[in-house]
Amino acid sequence: MTRYLKQNAVCVINCSWDVKELEQQLPAKMRRDLAEKKAKLFIIDATKIAVKAGLGKRINMIMQTVFFKLSAVMPYEEAVEMLKKSIKKMYGKKGDKVVKMNIDGVDASIAGIVECEVPAAWASLAVDTEASDAKTSTVAYAKGPRMFPEVQNASQFAAQVQKPCNNLDGNSLPVSAFVPGGRVPCGTSQYEKRGIAIQVPKVGMDKCTQCNKCSLICPHAAVRPFLMTSQELGKAPASFKEGSRSAIGGGVLDNYQYRIQVSPWDCTGCELCVRICPADALTLGPAEKAIQEEEANWNFAVALPDRGDEIDKTTVKGSQFQKPYLEFSGACEGCGETPHVKLMTQLFGDRLVIANAT
Ligand code: SF4
Ligand code: SF4
Q1: What are phi and psi of 309, to 5 degrees?
Q2: CB burial class (10 A; 0-12, 13-18, 19+) of residue 336?
Q3: What is the ipTM of this complex?
Q4: Three-class SS of residue 203?
Q5: In which residue ranges of the chain is CATH 3.30.70.20 found?
């Protein structure tokens, strides 16, 4: 992201870290770029300001204010006046309360900006690309169908094409990185592991009624029910074992243990699963903690045998034991479209063709 910064650029990071924590949190490559470009660095905890102003996680007004304050594209006072006018126009129909919340967010933004020193020593930091990638390399990947033999190596595609594109470095790719015809392999979103959630749900399995509604509604297939034999459970991480219960529902389910598992790297923190849970079994907690506690559990869960064939997929509960072929979508958090398409892939599997999905 910082590779293309211009000299003396202004860089603002929306984060929950304080100045001291930046040293640990920012990758060496980023710190080196900032120092080499003599960038002016600012941080702001826009999410905290938004929550305080009653805006939930909506940080757009706050970041717009920050942009006008620091970019100097026009006189700041003039920009803020126009911003407030546009808030009244945009949200006036939603009532004075919504207008006030947004204006409060704008007013609180400037006080939240913190300027950070960029130590000159960062310019000589050694950059170990392998080490910076190590975090994601421990993640386990599920197997799925591949459409075309010539582009079937999804992990290679993810490393050579997808990753540079996600790092805003797609322009550096040669034409030869692509397959003639422009086809790309399926199932590459599993390699992204974006880690964009601020809060991630945790399931209280003592409350869970095993309805699978959380999995049904998740737009990103980041929370799923898993079935395992007692023998398989014996090899699970300790906290996975603790959170597993005998599967309920009768029939073939009597043979298995059950657990709801969240993928903390893939969850977007949209909260839909928390809201739909009829048993109030899901609660949100800090994503960093969830990654530490749940990453190994998710890796264990996705490597379990697929038991979809044993279960009737025409019920809400049964459909969620089927493998979703639209998973970890990059749609906006809480997307209302992807749960439907995901469900179709669970019902029709790799016989489903989606054309012009707009
Ligand atoms: S918070 Fe949203 S993305 Fe995360 S598991 Fe729940 S429904 Fe899925
Ligand atoms: S929605 Fe709640 S009760 Fe139902 S499976 Fe998910 S966590 Fe359990």
Answers
A1: -65, -25
A2: exposed
A3: 0.99
A4: strand
A5: 199-351
Whole-number Å distance, alpha carbon 211 to ligand 2 midpoint, is 5
H or E element, residue 285: strand 282-286
226-237: pLDDT as tens digits: 999 999 999 999
Ligand 2 nearest atom to the CA of residue 209, by list position = 3
Q: What is the pLDDT of residue 148?
A: 46
Residue 244 near residue 254, CB atoms below 8 Å: no
CATH 3.40.920.10 domain locations along the chain:
10-122
Ligand 1 pocket test, pick from 193, 215, 268 with the greatest ligand atom count within 8 Å of Cβ, gives 268
CA-nearest of 295, 197, 187, 314 to 240 is 295
19-44 pLDDT, tens per residue?
A: 889 888 899 999 999 999 999 999 99
What is 199-351's CATH topology?
Alpha-Beta Plaits (3.30.70)
Q: Which of 3.90.170.10, 3.40.920.10, 3.40.50.720, 3.40.710.10 is the CATH number of 10-122?
A: 3.40.920.10
pLDDT at 178: 78
Distance CA 58, CA 251 (A): 45
Residue 290: what residue type? A
Q: Which stretch of 101-115, 154-168, 197-211 has the lowest confidence by average pLDDT? A: 154-168
DSSP string, 208-269: -----HHHHH-TTS-EEEEEE-HHHHTTS-HHHHHT-EE--SSGGGGG-EEEEEE-TTT---
Residues with CB under 6 A from ligand 1: 201, 218, 220, 222-223, 262, 267-273
Atom of ligand 2 nearest to the CA of 207: 3
Number of the ligand 2 atom closest to the C-alpha atom of 203: 7
Q: Is 40 helix (H, G, I), strand (E, B) or coil?
A: strand
Rounded to the nearest whole angstrom, what is the distance from the C-alpha of residue 5 to the centroid of ligand 1? 33
Torsion, Cα 117 123 127 131, to 10 degrees, reads -20
Q: What residue owns the CA closest to ligand 1's atom 4?
A: 267
Q: How far is the CA of 113 from the centre of ligand 1 (A)?
A: 30
